[in-house]
Amino acid sequence: MIARFTYVNRPSPIHRLDPAAKVVFLLCYIFSIVLFLDVRALAVMLLIGIVYYRLTGLKWQETRRAWKFILIFALIFIGISAVLWGGGQTVAEPHIIWQGPLGFDLTWEKLYYAAGIIMRMLGIAFVSIPLTFTTQPHDYGVGFKGIGLPDKFAVAIDLALRLVPTFASDFQSTMDAQRARGYETEGLRGGPIAKLRRMSPIVVPVTIGAIVSGEDIINAMDLRAFGSGPRTWSRKRQRTPADKMLIAFSLLMLVLCISWALTGHGAFEVFWVPGA
Amino acid sequence: MAQRVDVMRTDTRDNPWTVGTREVVYMAIGAALYGLFSWLTTGLRIPGPFNSSARPGVAIPLFFGAAFGPVVGFFSGFVGNIIGDLLSGYGFSFNWSLGNGLMGLVAGLASYYIRRLDNPRTIAISVGFAILGIIVGMGFASFTDIWFYNIDLNAAWTEFVPIFIANSLSAIVLIPILAIAWEAVRTRTGQTA
Lengths: 276, 193
Known about the structure:
The structure holds two protein chains of two kinds.
Chain A: H1 13-16, H2 19-33, H3 39-56, H4 60-85, E1 96-99, E2 105-107, H5 108-134, H6 139-146, H7 151-180, H8 192-223, H9 241-262
Antiparallel strand pairs in A: 1-2
Chain B: H1 21-40, H2 59-68, H3 70-88, H4 94-108, H5 120-149, H6 153-189
Helix pairs in contact in B: 1-2, 1-3, 2-3, 2-4, 2-6, 3-4, 4-5, 5-6
């Protein structure tokens, strides 16, 4: 079994960014977009998300799996539920488009609301999907160290990402060994508890084996006096002007959005109804 | 008759929040294992409109929390969920990663009451804290979707309940098995931490 990260190697401006800058942008964007339900404000935020996504140069076939889920979730579940129930928006005089059976009314208010939450979800998807596709796994530790994460946590992130292929190989060996003893790996029978119990011959040896082998890593790190002082890194990532610009833009966007929302803007509003 | 010899504790576990070399390594191992198991069980989808899957691997941050403390539990859940996302290609979900971290953290609070998982009582306490962790962590993740994606309260409950049941079953079944196996190895190898 090969545990392969979904990183796509491409010379795009987003690929070149520091992972910490991307995480700061992602968090600022999410906390900004959730402040609004006005489709005009959301359109601006969505545009920022689309521009960011376009800069990654990612192709549909590379991100298809993520997008299929997002689109099904956003358009079918969220969209339809918003059209049916309107998200609880109570309007004294709704602008009715169509009166359906069982007291259902399709109104402009419901359509605006559905459009708003679909735009919000798509916006979050445009900025969050690229993170894993544009960041080299071994850059996370150094990147997070760069935004002030303590050495111990940055090392743990680095180590975790390096251990994944090792444990995947251990998992495969364990499964092969259990199969040789007659363990059924496909189509586990029984109820949920029986299925979980049947998984233990795989989960338990891999987990306990990993913990026991961790002793060697602990000894090696202790022998090198890990944690006794500030740590140096074999790879360093200099923050580029592009990283600084993205961080500055993200913080500015967040401050502006919060200020705008606090002054009573960006709430749900039906600002234009055709023919009204 | 076999006799167990407990060596005097000289490690950092007296304070559950201390992070030493041992904790750093267990944080990494827990996160890597949880990420890997999450990825391997991505296909076990929970029926419904949400991107939720039954994760037997959820026992990893819960067990690591109980065995090695709340910081290890939090990190295993938080970073492990991100690694699972990195492997599966579903993108990155901040509130669900944080929810998974909280789940491991609350499970790790059991270390205030238990030092070892070597008898039915301490295992029961760790499972109890694990279930509390699932309520807090998955509750946080499900109900913050109201804010992130504007789903309504009923939808959040629809999201939370099946995940709570699936994760609780994993905790109830797998934590005792992992605890017994870990204690056996620990005694055999003379580890006290």
